[in-house]
Design a protein that fits this description.
The chain is α/β, with parallel strands linked by helices and about 250 residues long. It contains nine helices and seven strands; from the N terminus they run H-H-H-E-H-E-H-E-E-H-E-H-H-H-E-E. The protein binds S-adenosylmethionine (SAM).
Length: about 250
């Protein structure tokens, strides 16, 4: 499969604008998402949680956590003796997450930047980022930062939209997402803000190229699985450590 040569290495939209856009759509984000994905987003987040390999008592950071849906799924996996921290750039997203899931003892949320996480090296057993990577100014630097905060051998999981490999379906997916997202959002008075989301997919690396980006960031045993007829991919890699390739 030929790789697109024009893949972007990061999001060109300034971070302040990204944060302001997500702040503005925070009140409608969950409803628009569920409508746009016909409820599929829940299955995809479950697949991402499975990919962490976490069990009871685990510690995980959910980066670009938004309204906290994946963080809550992870909190369910690790149970009350585990630890989940959701981090997001947009304060209104963090406030929505706190309002929805603030009662779970193992789950906290905070404002923070994926490219400069406020955590020590190797603080977590795993790190996740769901539909967040394509917003970052530098994709490889994002993976490096996720890897830094994970223990050797721990998993870094990225759930993201991707362009299906079949050309016809890929084109159809791109044009329908581009039209559908603003249309659904306009029903909630947010059509303009939602124009950003499909445009953030333009030039986003395809799944094999994204796997290469993860390897370049230092992750090992990198692989990916396509979901939703190839429109979504879950990528997984492990932080290097003793006994792993490249250690
Ligand atoms: C499409 S939403 C995904 C939210 C959530 N993970 C989900 O699965 O629904 C993308 C999120 O990434 C956040 N974000 C964008 N740039 C970020 C950055 N540099 N650091 C942390 N979060 C960021 C946005 O504020 C937004 O909440």
């Amino acid at each position: 499969m030929p790789r697109p040569r024009d893949s972007r290495q990061g999001n060109p939209v300034p971070e302040e604008d990204v944060a302001a856009m997500f702040d503005s759509i925070a009140p409608v984000y969950d409803r628009v998402n569920t409508l746009m994905t016909a409820g599929g987003d829940r299955r995809w987040r479950n697949a991402a949680a499975d990919a962490t390999g976490l069990g009871t008592g685990g510690a995980v950071v959910d980066v670009a956590c938004g309204t906290g849906k994946l963080s809550a799924t992870l909190a369910d996996r690790v149970g009350p003796f585990g630890r989940v921290v959701g981090v997001d750039l947009a304060p209104a997203m963090v406030a929505a997450a706190e309002a929805a899931y603030g009662d779970l003892v193992q789950l906290t949320f905070q404002v923070g930047n994926a490219l400069a996480l406020p955590f020590a090296d190797a603080e977590f057993d795993a790190a996740t980022i769901a539909f967040g990577l394509r917003n970052l100014a530098d994709f490889e630097a994002g993976f490096r930062e996720l890897t830094r905060v994970v223990k050797p051998g721990g998993r870094v999981v990225c759930l993201e939209l991707t362009v299906p490999p079949q050309r016809g379906w890929g084109r159809l997916f791109r044009s329908s997402f581009g039209r559908l997202a603003p249309l659904v959002a306009s029903a909630f008075g947010q059509g303009e803000a939602y124009r950003y989301l499909p445009s953030s997919l333009d030039g986003f690396p395809d799944a094999p190229t994204l796997a290469d980006t993860m390897r370049a960031a230092g992750l090992v045993e990198v692989g990916f699985r396509r979901l939703a007829l190839g429109a979504v991919a879950v990528h997984v890699g492990r932080a290097p450590g003793p006994g792993l390739p490249g250690a």
